[in-house]
Amino acid sequence: MAGKLLSLLPPALLAAAGLAGLLLLCVPTRDVREPPSLKYGIVLDAGSSHTSMFVYKWPADKENDTGIVGQHSSCDVRGGGISSYADNPSGAGQSLVECLEQALRDVPRERHAGTPLYLGATAGMRLLHLTSPEASAKVLAAVTHTLTQYPFDFRGARILSGQDEGVFGWVTANYLLENFIKYSWAGRWFRPRKGTLGAMDLGGASTQLTFEVASPAEDPANEVQLRLYGQQYRVYTHSFLCYGRDQVLQRLLASVLQTRRPHPCWPRGYSTHVLLRDVYASPCTEAQRPQTFNSSDRVGLSGGGDPAFCRSLVSGLFNLSSCPFSRCSFNGVFQPPVAGDFIAFSAFFYTVDFLRTVMGLPVATLQQLEDAAVTVCSQTWSELLARAPAAEAHLPNYCPMAMFVQQLLSLGYRFDEHAFSRVTFQKKAGDTAVGWALGYMLNLTNMIPADPPGLRKTTAFSSWVALLLLFTALLLAALVLLLCKARPAKPPSAI
Ligand SMILES: *[C@@H]1O[C@H](CO)[C@@H](O)[C@H](O)[C@H]1NC(C)=O
Ligand SMILES: *[C@@H]1O[C@H](CO)[C@@H](O)[C@H](O)[C@H]1NC(C)=O
Ligand SMILES: *[C@@H]1O[C@H](CO)[C@@H](O)[C@H](O)[C@H]1NC(C)=O
Ligand SMILES: *[C@@H]1O[C@H](CO)[C@@H](O)[C@H](O)[C@H]1NC(C)=O
Q1: Ligand 1 near 449 CB (within 6 A)
Q2: Where does ATP bind (predicted)?
Q3: For the whole model, what pTM was predicted?
Q4: Which one, 56, 183, 238, 386, has the greatest CB density within 10 A?
Q5: How far apart are CA 282 and CA 295, in angstroms?
Q6: Is 205 flagged in the annotation as binding?
Q7: Which residue range forms the structural domain that includes residue 184?
Protein backbone atom coordinates (compact mmCIF):
# COMPACT_ATOMS: atom_id res chain seq x y z
CA MET A 1 0.00 0.00 0.00
CA ALA A 2 2.82 2.38 0.99
CA GLY A 3 4.59 1.48 -2.27
CA LYS A 4 1.51 2.40 -4.25
CA LEU A 5 1.23 5.81 -2.51
CA LEU A 6 4.93 6.41 -3.12
CA SER A 7 4.50 5.73 -6.83
CA LEU A 8 1.72 8.36 -6.93
CA LEU A 9 4.03 11.04 -5.55
CA PRO A 10 5.87 12.14 -8.76
CA PRO A 11 2.72 12.69 -10.88
CA ALA A 12 1.03 14.40 -7.91
CA LEU A 13 4.00 16.78 -7.56
CA LEU A 14 3.89 17.40 -11.30
CA ALA A 15 0.17 18.23 -11.10
CA ALA A 16 0.77 20.58 -8.19
CA ALA A 17 3.50 22.39 -10.14
CA GLY A 18 1.23 22.74 -13.17
CA LEU A 19 -1.60 24.06 -11.03
CA ALA A 20 0.68 26.51 -9.23
CA GLY A 21 1.99 27.80 -12.58
CA LEU A 22 -1.54 28.32 -13.88
CA LEU A 23 -2.61 30.11 -10.72
CA LEU A 24 0.43 32.38 -10.83
CA LEU A 25 -0.33 33.26 -14.47
CA CYS A 26 -3.88 34.20 -13.55
CA VAL A 27 -2.95 36.56 -10.70
CA PRO A 28 -3.25 40.02 -12.27
CA THR A 29 0.26 41.46 -12.34
CA ARG A 30 -1.19 44.90 -11.62
CA ASP A 31 -2.02 43.81 -8.08
CA VAL A 32 1.52 42.88 -7.20
CA ARG A 33 3.31 45.74 -8.96
CA GLU A 34 3.86 49.21 -7.53
CA PRO A 35 1.32 51.72 -8.85
CA PRO A 36 2.81 53.25 -12.03
CA SER A 37 4.17 56.76 -11.62
CA LEU A 38 2.29 59.57 -13.34
CA LYS A 39 3.38 62.16 -15.85
CA TYR A 40 1.74 65.56 -16.26
CA GLY A 41 1.16 68.19 -18.95
CA ILE A 42 -0.35 71.67 -18.73
CA VAL A 43 -2.28 73.60 -21.39
CA LEU A 44 -3.50 77.16 -21.01
CA ASP A 45 -6.53 77.69 -23.23
CA ALA A 46 -6.45 81.43 -23.86
CA GLY A 47 -9.92 82.08 -25.24
CA SER A 48 -11.39 85.42 -26.22
CA SER A 49 -13.45 85.88 -23.05
CA HIS A 50 -11.30 84.05 -20.52
CA THR A 51 -8.34 81.72 -20.03
CA SER A 52 -8.62 78.21 -18.58
CA MET A 53 -5.77 76.06 -17.39
CA PHE A 54 -5.95 72.29 -17.72
CA VAL A 55 -3.54 69.92 -15.98
CA TYR A 56 -3.51 66.46 -17.60
CA LYS A 57 -2.03 63.24 -16.27
CA TRP A 58 -1.21 59.78 -17.56
CA PRO A 59 0.71 56.68 -16.40
CA ALA A 60 4.36 57.15 -17.35
CA ASP A 61 4.70 53.67 -18.85
CA LYS A 62 1.66 53.91 -21.13
CA GLU A 63 2.41 57.00 -23.15
CA ASN A 64 1.03 55.82 -26.47
CA ASP A 65 -2.10 54.04 -25.29
CA THR A 66 -5.36 55.62 -26.35
CA GLY A 67 -7.74 57.05 -23.78
CA ILE A 68 -5.05 57.02 -21.09
CA VAL A 69 -4.58 60.78 -20.66
CA GLY A 70 -7.16 62.32 -18.37
CA GLN A 71 -7.75 65.64 -16.67
CA HIS A 72 -6.02 66.01 -13.30
CA SER A 73 -7.31 69.49 -12.41
CA SER A 74 -8.30 72.79 -13.96
CA CYS A 75 -8.35 76.47 -13.08
CA ASP A 76 -10.27 79.45 -14.45
CA VAL A 77 -8.16 82.56 -14.75
CA ARG A 78 -9.90 85.57 -13.26
CA GLY A 79 -10.65 88.53 -15.53
CA GLY A 80 -10.96 88.71 -19.31
CA GLY A 81 -9.13 86.87 -22.06
CA ILE A 82 -5.50 87.78 -22.75
CA SER A 83 -6.58 89.74 -25.84
CA SER A 84 -8.41 92.19 -23.54
CA TYR A 85 -4.99 93.33 -22.23
CA ALA A 86 -3.98 94.96 -25.51
CA ASP A 87 -3.48 98.30 -23.72
CA ASN A 88 -1.70 96.71 -20.75
CA PRO A 89 0.21 93.63 -21.97
CA SER A 90 1.97 92.89 -18.68
CA GLY A 91 -1.47 92.55 -17.08
CA ALA A 92 -2.06 89.54 -19.37
CA GLY A 93 0.95 87.74 -17.87
CA GLN A 94 0.04 88.78 -14.33
CA SER A 95 -3.50 87.43 -14.75
CA LEU A 96 -2.15 83.88 -15.15
CA VAL A 97 -0.17 83.84 -11.89
CA GLU A 98 -2.92 82.57 -9.61
CA CYS A 99 -3.58 79.50 -11.78
CA LEU A 100 0.13 78.82 -12.28
CA GLU A 101 0.60 78.85 -8.50
CA GLN A 102 -2.17 76.25 -8.33
CA ALA A 103 -0.34 74.18 -10.97
CA LEU A 104 2.77 74.21 -8.74
CA ARG A 105 0.67 72.54 -6.04
CA ASP A 106 -1.30 70.21 -8.37
CA VAL A 107 1.80 68.70 -10.00
CA PRO A 108 4.18 66.91 -7.58
CA ARG A 109 7.39 68.90 -7.12
CA GLU A 110 9.66 66.18 -8.54
CA ARG A 111 7.63 66.24 -11.79
CA HIS A 112 7.75 70.03 -12.34
CA ALA A 113 10.78 70.09 -14.63
CA GLY A 114 9.45 67.26 -16.83
CA THR A 115 5.97 68.74 -17.25
CA PRO A 116 5.38 70.38 -20.65
CA LEU A 117 3.52 73.70 -20.48
CA TYR A 118 1.76 75.20 -23.51
CA LEU A 119 -0.32 78.30 -24.07
CA GLY A 120 -2.63 78.33 -27.06
CA ALA A 121 -4.64 81.42 -27.92
CA THR A 122 -7.69 81.31 -30.15
CA ALA A 123 -10.08 83.67 -31.92
CA GLY A 124 -9.79 86.62 -29.50
CA MET A 125 -6.09 86.87 -30.32
CA ARG A 126 -6.75 86.18 -34.02
CA LEU A 127 -9.00 89.25 -34.01
CA LEU A 128 -6.44 91.35 -32.10
CA HIS A 129 -3.79 90.21 -34.58
CA LEU A 130 -6.05 91.45 -37.40
CA THR A 131 -6.53 94.89 -35.85
CA SER A 132 -3.02 95.29 -34.40
CA PRO A 133 -0.28 92.72 -35.00
CA GLU A 134 2.05 94.69 -32.68
CA ALA A 135 -0.44 94.58 -29.82
CA SER A 136 -0.94 90.82 -30.17
CA ALA A 137 2.83 90.26 -30.30
CA LYS A 138 3.25 92.30 -27.09
CA VAL A 139 0.57 90.26 -25.31
CA LEU A 140 2.21 86.99 -26.36
CA ALA A 141 5.61 88.29 -25.22
CA ALA A 142 4.13 89.26 -21.85
CA VAL A 143 2.55 85.87 -21.20
CA THR A 144 5.75 84.16 -22.38
CA HIS A 145 7.72 86.22 -19.87
CA THR A 146 5.42 85.09 -17.04
CA LEU A 147 5.35 81.43 -18.09
CA THR A 148 9.15 81.15 -18.25
CA GLN A 149 9.33 82.19 -14.56
CA TYR A 150 7.92 78.81 -13.59
CA PRO A 151 9.87 75.54 -13.25
CA PHE A 152 7.77 73.74 -15.88
CA ASP A 153 9.06 72.77 -19.34
CA PHE A 154 7.55 75.77 -21.16
CA ARG A 155 7.14 74.99 -24.87
CA GLY A 156 5.71 78.21 -26.25
CA ALA A 157 2.72 80.54 -26.47
CA ARG A 158 1.05 80.65 -29.90
CA ILE A 159 -2.10 81.67 -31.70
CA LEU A 160 -3.84 78.59 -33.11
CA SER A 161 -5.36 78.78 -36.57
CA GLY A 162 -9.10 78.19 -36.82
CA GLN A 163 -8.31 74.93 -38.61
CA ASP A 164 -6.12 73.68 -35.74
CA GLU A 165 -8.74 74.67 -33.22
CA GLY A 166 -11.40 72.64 -35.04
CA VAL A 167 -9.21 69.59 -35.67
CA PHE A 168 -7.81 69.40 -32.12
CA GLY A 169 -11.34 69.57 -30.69
CA TRP A 170 -12.25 66.64 -32.95
CA VAL A 171 -9.11 64.72 -31.88
CA THR A 172 -9.89 65.34 -28.18
CA ALA A 173 -13.46 64.05 -28.42
CA ASN A 174 -12.56 60.94 -30.40
CA TYR A 175 -9.51 60.19 -28.25
CA LEU A 176 -11.52 60.37 -25.03
CA LEU A 177 -14.27 58.18 -26.45
CA GLU A 178 -11.69 55.67 -27.79
CA ASN A 179 -12.95 55.93 -31.36
CA PHE A 180 -9.48 55.70 -32.95
CA ILE A 181 -8.26 52.47 -31.43
CA LYS A 182 -9.07 50.31 -28.45
CA TYR A 183 -7.19 47.69 -26.48
CA SER A 184 -9.51 44.71 -26.29
CA TRP A 185 -9.88 42.29 -23.39
CA ALA A 186 -8.39 39.64 -25.68
CA GLY A 187 -5.12 41.59 -25.70
CA ARG A 188 -5.27 43.06 -29.20
CA TRP A 189 -5.45 46.59 -30.55
CA PHE A 190 -8.45 47.02 -32.80
CA ARG A 191 -10.29 49.81 -34.58
CA PRO A 192 -13.81 50.25 -33.20
CA ARG A 193 -16.43 49.92 -35.93
CA LYS A 194 -18.56 52.82 -34.80
CA GLY A 195 -16.39 55.35 -36.68
CA THR A 196 -15.49 58.83 -35.54
CA LEU A 197 -17.63 61.54 -34.01
CA GLY A 198 -18.06 65.01 -35.51
CA ALA A 199 -17.22 67.98 -33.26
CA MET A 200 -18.92 71.36 -32.86
CA ASP A 201 -17.31 74.03 -30.71
CA LEU A 202 -18.77 77.45 -29.91
CA GLY A 203 -16.28 79.83 -28.30
CA GLY A 204 -16.42 83.53 -27.53
CA ALA A 205 -15.23 84.77 -30.92
CA SER A 206 -15.46 81.82 -33.33
CA THR A 207 -17.28 78.56 -33.92
CA GLN A 208 -15.89 75.34 -35.43
CA LEU A 209 -17.46 72.44 -37.31
CA THR A 210 -15.29 69.35 -37.88
CA PHE A 211 -16.21 65.86 -39.12
CA GLU A 212 -14.76 62.92 -41.03
CA VAL A 213 -15.66 62.77 -44.73
CA ALA A 214 -15.19 60.16 -47.46
CA SER A 215 -14.39 62.39 -50.44
CA PRO A 216 -11.95 65.29 -50.88
CA ALA A 217 -13.13 68.78 -49.94
CA GLU A 218 -13.80 71.09 -52.90
CA ASP A 219 -11.93 73.81 -51.03
CA PRO A 220 -8.53 72.51 -49.86
CA ALA A 221 -8.61 75.03 -47.00
CA ASN A 222 -11.36 72.91 -45.43
CA GLU A 223 -9.53 69.60 -45.52
CA VAL A 224 -7.04 68.12 -43.07
CA GLN A 225 -5.52 64.66 -43.44
CA LEU A 226 -4.39 62.96 -40.27
CA ARG A 227 -2.54 59.71 -39.67
CA LEU A 228 -3.32 58.36 -36.21
CA TYR A 229 -2.37 54.89 -34.94
CA GLY A 230 -1.73 53.70 -38.50
CA GLN A 231 -5.05 54.88 -39.89
CA GLN A 232 -5.57 57.74 -42.35
CA TYR A 233 -8.42 60.18 -41.62
CA ARG A 234 -9.83 62.75 -44.02
CA VAL A 235 -11.46 65.50 -41.99
CA TYR A 236 -13.58 68.47 -43.06
CA THR A 237 -13.17 71.51 -40.83
CA HIS A 238 -14.13 75.16 -40.84
CA SER A 239 -13.87 77.90 -38.25
CA PHE A 240 -16.19 80.91 -38.61
CA LEU A 241 -14.51 83.96 -37.12
CA CYS A 242 -17.01 86.45 -35.60
CA TYR A 243 -19.55 83.64 -35.01
CA GLY A 244 -18.56 82.99 -31.38
CA ARG A 245 -20.97 83.90 -28.60
CA ASP A 246 -19.63 87.35 -27.61
CA GLN A 247 -19.07 88.51 -31.18
CA VAL A 248 -22.55 87.36 -32.21
CA LEU A 249 -24.03 89.32 -29.30
CA GLN A 250 -22.04 92.45 -30.28
CA ARG A 251 -23.09 92.11 -33.91
CA LEU A 252 -26.76 91.80 -32.94
CA LEU A 253 -26.34 94.86 -30.71
CA ALA A 254 -24.81 96.82 -33.58
CA SER A 255 -27.76 95.85 -35.82
CA VAL A 256 -30.26 96.87 -33.14
CA LEU A 257 -28.55 100.26 -32.69
CA GLN A 258 -29.13 100.89 -36.42
CA THR A 259 -32.86 100.20 -36.04
CA ARG A 260 -33.31 102.60 -33.07
CA ARG A 261 -35.83 100.12 -31.67
CA PRO A 262 -35.72 98.11 -28.41
CA HIS A 263 -33.52 94.97 -28.55
CA PRO A 264 -35.90 92.23 -29.79
CA CYS A 265 -33.77 89.46 -28.23
CA TRP A 266 -33.67 90.97 -24.75
CA PRO A 267 -36.56 90.42 -22.32
CA ARG A 268 -39.17 93.08 -21.76
CA GLY A 269 -38.51 94.92 -18.52
CA TYR A 270 -34.71 94.77 -18.95
CA SER A 271 -32.70 97.87 -19.81
CA THR A 272 -29.05 98.81 -19.73
CA HIS A 273 -26.49 101.24 -21.12
CA VAL A 274 -24.27 100.19 -23.96
CA LEU A 275 -20.79 101.68 -24.37
CA LEU A 276 -20.32 102.34 -28.08
CA ARG A 277 -16.58 101.67 -27.84
CA ASP A 278 -17.32 98.08 -26.74
CA VAL A 279 -19.75 97.50 -29.59
CA TYR A 280 -17.59 98.89 -32.39
CA ALA A 281 -14.10 97.93 -31.19
CA SER A 282 -14.14 94.53 -32.90
CA PRO A 283 -13.49 93.92 -36.61
CA CYS A 284 -16.68 91.81 -36.52
CA THR A 285 -18.93 94.90 -36.26
CA GLU A 286 -17.01 96.94 -38.81
CA ALA A 287 -19.78 96.74 -41.42
CA GLN A 288 -22.32 98.26 -39.03
CA ARG A 289 -20.02 100.95 -37.59
CA PRO A 290 -21.37 104.50 -38.15
CA GLN A 291 -19.09 106.90 -40.02
CA THR A 292 -18.76 109.07 -36.94
CA PHE A 293 -19.54 108.25 -33.35
CA ASN A 294 -18.30 109.24 -29.92
CA SER A 295 -16.65 106.09 -28.59
CA SER A 296 -17.14 107.10 -24.97
CA ASP A 297 -20.88 107.59 -25.47
CA ARG A 298 -23.26 105.29 -23.65
CA VAL A 299 -26.59 104.53 -25.27
CA GLY A 300 -29.60 103.41 -23.24
CA LEU A 301 -31.25 100.27 -24.65
CA SER A 302 -34.23 98.28 -23.42
CA GLY A 303 -35.52 94.80 -24.17
CA GLY A 304 -38.37 94.25 -26.63
CA GLY A 305 -39.05 90.54 -26.13
CA ASP A 306 -39.95 89.99 -29.79
CA PRO A 307 -39.04 86.41 -30.85
CA ALA A 308 -39.98 86.83 -34.53
CA PHE A 309 -37.92 90.00 -34.99
CA CYS A 310 -35.07 88.45 -32.98
CA ARG A 311 -35.07 85.44 -35.29
CA SER A 312 -34.91 87.61 -38.38
CA LEU A 313 -31.99 89.61 -36.93
CA VAL A 314 -30.13 86.37 -36.15
CA SER A 315 -30.80 84.86 -39.58
CA GLY A 316 -29.31 88.06 -41.05
CA LEU A 317 -25.94 86.83 -39.73
CA PHE A 318 -25.93 84.08 -42.37
CA ASN A 319 -25.31 85.08 -45.96
CA LEU A 320 -26.86 82.33 -48.08
CA SER A 321 -26.90 84.23 -51.35
CA SER A 322 -23.87 82.87 -53.16
CA CYS A 323 -21.86 79.66 -53.23
CA PRO A 324 -18.84 79.12 -55.52
CA PHE A 325 -18.92 75.34 -54.78
CA SER A 326 -21.43 72.55 -55.35
CA ARG A 327 -22.69 73.13 -51.82
CA CYS A 328 -22.06 75.57 -49.01
CA SER A 329 -22.93 76.22 -45.41
CA PHE A 330 -23.04 80.04 -45.49
CA ASN A 331 -20.89 83.04 -46.47
CA GLY A 332 -19.74 81.09 -49.52
CA VAL A 333 -17.93 78.45 -47.44
CA PHE A 334 -17.79 74.92 -48.84
CA GLN A 335 -19.41 72.23 -46.69
CA PRO A 336 -20.40 68.63 -47.52
CA PRO A 337 -23.65 67.35 -45.95
CA VAL A 338 -23.24 66.64 -42.23
CA ALA A 339 -23.02 62.91 -41.55
CA GLY A 340 -22.81 60.67 -38.50
CA ASP A 341 -22.88 61.37 -34.80
CA PHE A 342 -21.82 64.76 -33.42
CA ILE A 343 -20.80 66.12 -30.08
CA ALA A 344 -21.52 69.82 -29.45
CA PHE A 345 -19.61 71.34 -26.53
CA SER A 346 -18.63 74.67 -24.90
CA ALA A 347 -21.29 77.37 -25.46
CA PHE A 348 -23.45 74.90 -27.46
CA PHE A 349 -23.69 72.87 -24.26
CA TYR A 350 -24.26 75.87 -21.95
CA THR A 351 -27.08 77.19 -24.13
CA VAL A 352 -28.94 73.90 -24.49
CA ASP A 353 -28.30 73.02 -20.85
CA PHE A 354 -30.02 76.28 -19.78
CA LEU A 355 -33.06 75.47 -21.92
CA ARG A 356 -33.26 71.99 -20.45
CA THR A 357 -32.45 72.48 -16.79
CA VAL A 358 -33.48 76.06 -15.98
CA MET A 359 -36.39 76.41 -18.40
CA GLY A 360 -37.40 72.74 -18.19
CA LEU A 361 -37.91 72.52 -21.96
CA PRO A 362 -37.28 69.47 -24.16
CA VAL A 363 -34.59 69.94 -26.84
CA ALA A 364 -34.61 66.58 -28.61
CA THR A 365 -35.54 67.94 -32.06
CA LEU A 366 -34.76 71.06 -34.09
CA GLN A 367 -38.43 72.02 -33.82
CA GLN A 368 -38.27 71.72 -30.03
CA LEU A 369 -35.09 73.81 -30.01
CA GLU A 370 -36.86 76.50 -32.03
CA ASP A 371 -39.92 76.37 -29.76
CA ALA A 372 -37.64 76.59 -26.71
CA ALA A 373 -35.89 79.64 -28.17
CA VAL A 374 -39.26 81.33 -28.78
CA THR A 375 -40.31 80.50 -25.21
CA VAL A 376 -37.15 82.03 -23.69
CA CYS A 377 -37.45 85.09 -25.93
CA SER A 378 -41.05 85.62 -24.72
CA GLN A 379 -40.14 85.67 -21.02
CA THR A 380 -40.13 88.98 -19.20
CA TRP A 381 -37.07 90.07 -17.22
CA SER A 382 -38.75 89.37 -13.89
CA GLU A 383 -39.85 85.91 -15.02
CA LEU A 384 -36.29 85.06 -16.07
CA LEU A 385 -34.83 86.49 -12.86
CA ALA A 386 -37.22 84.40 -10.79
CA ARG A 387 -36.01 81.25 -12.55
CA ALA A 388 -32.28 81.82 -12.23
CA PRO A 389 -31.41 84.72 -9.90
CA ALA A 390 -27.78 83.59 -9.65
CA ALA A 391 -27.23 83.82 -13.42
CA GLU A 392 -28.34 87.47 -13.71
CA ALA A 393 -25.35 88.65 -15.76
CA HIS A 394 -25.96 86.06 -18.50
CA LEU A 395 -29.77 85.95 -18.47
CA PRO A 396 -30.49 88.53 -21.20
CA ASN A 397 -28.29 86.54 -23.61
CA TYR A 398 -29.96 83.13 -23.52
CA CYS A 399 -32.69 84.19 -25.97
CA PRO A 400 -30.28 85.44 -28.66
CA MET A 401 -27.95 82.46 -28.09
CA ALA A 402 -30.75 79.91 -28.31
CA MET A 403 -31.92 81.55 -31.55
CA PHE A 404 -28.36 81.59 -32.84
CA VAL A 405 -27.67 77.92 -32.06
CA GLN A 406 -30.95 76.90 -33.70
CA GLN A 407 -30.29 78.97 -36.83
CA LEU A 408 -26.62 78.01 -37.07
CA LEU A 409 -27.45 74.30 -37.04
CA SER A 410 -30.53 74.40 -39.30
CA LEU A 411 -29.93 77.33 -41.65
CA GLY A 412 -26.12 77.41 -41.48
CA TYR A 413 -24.90 73.81 -41.28
CA ARG A 414 -28.12 72.31 -42.80
CA PHE A 415 -28.86 69.78 -40.08
CA ASP A 416 -32.29 68.22 -40.69
CA GLU A 417 -34.29 66.47 -37.98
CA HIS A 418 -32.62 63.13 -38.65
CA ALA A 419 -29.10 64.57 -38.53
CA PHE A 420 -29.97 66.63 -35.44
CA SER A 421 -31.14 63.51 -33.59
CA ARG A 422 -27.51 62.33 -33.72
CA VAL A 423 -26.14 65.44 -31.97
CA THR A 424 -25.34 65.23 -28.25
CA PHE A 425 -24.70 68.35 -26.19
CA GLN A 426 -21.99 67.52 -23.71
CA LYS A 427 -19.13 69.40 -22.09
CA LYS A 428 -17.10 66.52 -20.66
CA ALA A 429 -16.19 62.93 -21.45
CA GLY A 430 -15.70 61.28 -18.08
CA ASP A 431 -13.86 63.84 -15.98
CA THR A 432 -12.14 65.51 -18.90
CA ALA A 433 -13.40 68.70 -20.56
CA VAL A 434 -13.97 68.38 -24.32
CA GLY A 435 -12.17 71.17 -26.21
CA TRP A 436 -9.07 71.67 -28.33
CA ALA A 437 -6.62 71.75 -25.40
CA LEU A 438 -6.09 68.00 -24.89
CA GLY A 439 -5.78 67.27 -28.63
CA TYR A 440 -3.25 70.10 -28.89
CA MET A 441 -1.09 68.61 -26.12
CA LEU A 442 -1.38 65.05 -27.50
CA ASN A 443 -0.16 66.32 -30.86
CA LEU A 444 2.70 68.46 -29.56
CA THR A 445 3.97 65.71 -27.26
CA ASN A 446 3.71 63.12 -30.09
CA MET A 447 1.48 61.03 -27.87
CA ILE A 448 -0.68 59.90 -30.77
CA PRO A 449 1.78 57.94 -32.94
CA ALA A 450 1.21 57.80 -36.69
CA ASP A 451 1.81 54.04 -36.58
CA PRO A 452 -0.16 51.39 -34.70
CA PRO A 453 0.99 50.80 -31.11
CA GLY A 454 4.18 48.73 -30.90
CA LEU A 455 4.45 45.00 -30.28
CA ARG A 456 5.15 45.60 -26.60
CA LYS A 457 1.77 44.31 -25.48
CA THR A 458 1.34 41.58 -28.06
CA THR A 459 4.77 40.09 -27.29
CA ALA A 460 4.00 39.94 -23.61
CA PHE A 461 0.62 38.52 -24.49
CA SER A 462 1.91 35.72 -26.73
CA SER A 463 4.50 34.59 -24.19
CA TRP A 464 1.74 34.60 -21.63
CA VAL A 465 -0.34 32.35 -23.90
CA ALA A 466 2.65 30.01 -24.47
CA LEU A 467 3.20 29.67 -20.72
CA LEU A 468 -0.50 29.10 -20.18
CA LEU A 469 -0.48 26.25 -22.74
CA LEU A 470 2.70 24.74 -21.24
CA PHE A 471 1.36 24.64 -17.70
CA THR A 472 -2.00 23.29 -18.89
CA ALA A 473 -0.23 20.49 -20.78
CA LEU A 474 1.85 19.74 -17.67
CA LEU A 475 -1.24 19.55 -15.50
CA LEU A 476 -3.10 17.31 -17.96
CA ALA A 477 -0.14 14.92 -18.35
CA ALA A 478 0.19 14.67 -14.57
CA LEU A 479 -3.52 13.97 -14.15
CA VAL A 480 -3.45 11.23 -16.79
CA LEU A 481 -0.44 9.63 -15.07
CA LEU A 482 -2.15 9.86 -11.69
CA LEU A 483 -5.30 8.22 -13.01
CA CYS A 484 -3.39 5.33 -14.59
CA LYS A 485 -1.38 4.64 -11.43
CA ALA A 486 -4.25 5.03 -8.97
CA ARG A 487 -6.65 2.72 -10.85
CA PRO A 488 -6.86 -0.67 -9.10
CA ALA A 489 -5.66 -3.61 -11.12
CA LYS A 490 -8.34 -4.91 -13.48
CA PRO A 491 -10.35 -7.75 -11.99
CA PRO A 492 -9.96 -10.90 -14.05
CA SER A 493 -12.68 -10.96 -16.64
CA ALA A 494 -15.31 -13.61 -16.18
CA ILE A 495 -15.94 -15.64 -19.29
C1 LIG B 1 5.57 56.52 -27.85
O2 LIG B 1 5.77 56.74 -29.23
C3 LIG B 1 6.88 57.54 -29.51
C4 LIG B 1 6.91 57.80 -31.01
O5 LIG B 1 6.28 56.80 -31.73
C6 LIG B 1 8.14 56.83 -29.03
O7 LIG B 1 9.27 57.62 -29.30
C8 LIG B 1 8.03 56.59 -27.53
O9 LIG B 1 9.15 55.85 -27.07
C10 LIG B 1 6.76 55.84 -27.21
N11 LIG B 1 6.61 55.74 -25.76
C12 LIG B 1 6.32 54.59 -25.13
C13 LIG B 1 6.24 54.66 -23.64
O14 LIG B 1 6.09 53.56 -25.73
C1 LIG C 1 -17.81 112.30 -26.22
O2 LIG C 1 -18.65 112.13 -25.10
C3 LIG C 1 -18.08 112.56 -23.86
C4 LIG C 1 -19.02 112.20 -22.74
O5 LIG C 1 -20.13 111.54 -23.21
C6 LIG C 1 -17.87 114.09 -23.94
O7 LIG C 1 -17.27 114.53 -22.75
C8 LIG C 1 -16.96 114.39 -25.13
O9 LIG C 1 -16.84 115.78 -25.28
C10 LIG C 1 -17.53 113.80 -26.41
N11 LIG C 1 -16.55 113.95 -27.49
C12 LIG C 1 -16.89 114.42 -28.70
C13 LIG C 1 -15.79 114.52 -29.68
O14 LIG C 1 -18.03 114.75 -28.97
C1 LIG D 1 -23.62 88.05 -49.40
O2 LIG D 1 -22.45 87.67 -50.09
C3 LIG D 1 -22.42 88.15 -51.42
C4 LIG D 1 -21.20 87.53 -52.09
O5 LIG D 1 -20.10 87.57 -51.26
C6 LIG D 1 -22.39 89.66 -51.40
O7 LIG D 1 -22.34 90.16 -52.73
C8 LIG D 1 -23.63 90.17 -50.69
O9 LIG D 1 -23.58 91.57 -50.58
C10 LIG D 1 -23.75 89.55 -49.32
N11 LIG D 1 -25.01 89.91 -48.74
C12 LIG D 1 -25.13 90.43 -47.53
C13 LIG D 1 -26.51 90.72 -47.05
O14 LIG D 1 -24.15 90.70 -46.84
C1 LIG E 1 0.50 67.06 -35.24
O2 LIG E 1 1.91 67.05 -35.18
C3 LIG E 1 2.59 66.64 -36.34
C4 LIG E 1 4.06 66.69 -36.09
O5 LIG E 1 4.37 66.10 -34.90
C6 LIG E 1 2.20 67.48 -37.53
O7 LIG E 1 2.82 67.02 -38.69
C8 LIG E 1 0.69 67.46 -37.68
O9 LIG E 1 0.31 68.31 -38.73
C10 LIG E 1 0.02 67.87 -36.41
N11 LIG E 1 -1.42 67.73 -36.56
C12 LIG E 1 -2.20 68.78 -36.67
C13 LIG E 1 -3.63 68.52 -36.82
O14 LIG E 1 -1.79 69.91 -36.63
Answers
A1: yes
A2: 204-208
A3: 0.85
A4: 56
A5: 13
A6: yes
A7: 38-242+430-447
